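User: Hi! I'm working on a homework problem where we have to compare a predicted structure to a textbook description. Could you give me the structure for the chain below?
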Amino acid sequence: MMDDLKVESEEKLSGEKIEVDEERLPSRAMAIHEHIRQEGEKELERDAMALLWSAIAAGLSMGASLLAKGIFHVELTGVPGGFLLENLGYTFGFIIVIMARQQLFTENTVTAVLPVMQNLTMSNIGLLLRLWGVVLLGNLIGTAVAAWAFEYMPIFNEETRDAFIKIGLDVMKNSPTEMFANAIISGWLIATMVWMFPAAGAAKIVVIILMTWLIALGDTTHIVVGSVEILYLVFNGTLHWSDFFWPFALPTLAGNIVGGTFIFALMSHAQIRNDMSTKRKQEARLRSMHDAKEHKHEEKQH
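Assistant: Happy to help. Predicted structure tokens:
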């Protein structure tokens, strides 16, 4: 079964590896693109159960964002600048998920999309839809478990529970159109963050904090973090299940995909298309020079 899960690419056909060495590529942007494409191919070819368990773990981990933000909200009430520190709590779940290499749906709106854009075939599109479906399902299962635990396990005091409710209700103040528009921004910011990782090195955690803190400060909507917040309201009876899907989940999911895939990934891929053409010309020139040298060598032997 696993042998069938292969991304179709020029490198696979020729038996080569994706070139990620910046010195051998036309631009720094292309080096980053190829590095992310290499990671994307690995994700697309992973076993479905491995993806699912990793995605469930990510959904659970995202509960840390609601947990931290709720606690900060209670403890920082009346403190000058408390809003800034409270929203810093939003970053906790992302730090855990990304540093632990767990599967987050919005991260895959750019990472797994680049290999498909590089070679747009039905097989590759099928692998992408498979990955998205499994990871989204796992993320939602994990967030549901986290939200259920926060509501039914005797962990938090009433002030913290009230803070969780307030956080969720603040999200639900958005209309479906606002959910969609805000989600485009968060999808774009997550994709930007992923694009920055190859160059970030040891500063990766700083990039995660800054970009996800900005998402929180902008009151944007995110399908995974938001699911913990809204499902908490569902489990405590504040909202009906239907409210989770509309006005929240469907517009937010669509917005995250548009922001991460159709805006960022398309633009990122477009900017290096000319570089790819240059790279192919360089490779053709090198092959031609190599063939010429071999031909001269054969003539000398004769």
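For your comparison, note the following. The chain has one domain: 26-291. The two ends are 51 Å apart (CA to CA). Good luck with the assignment!
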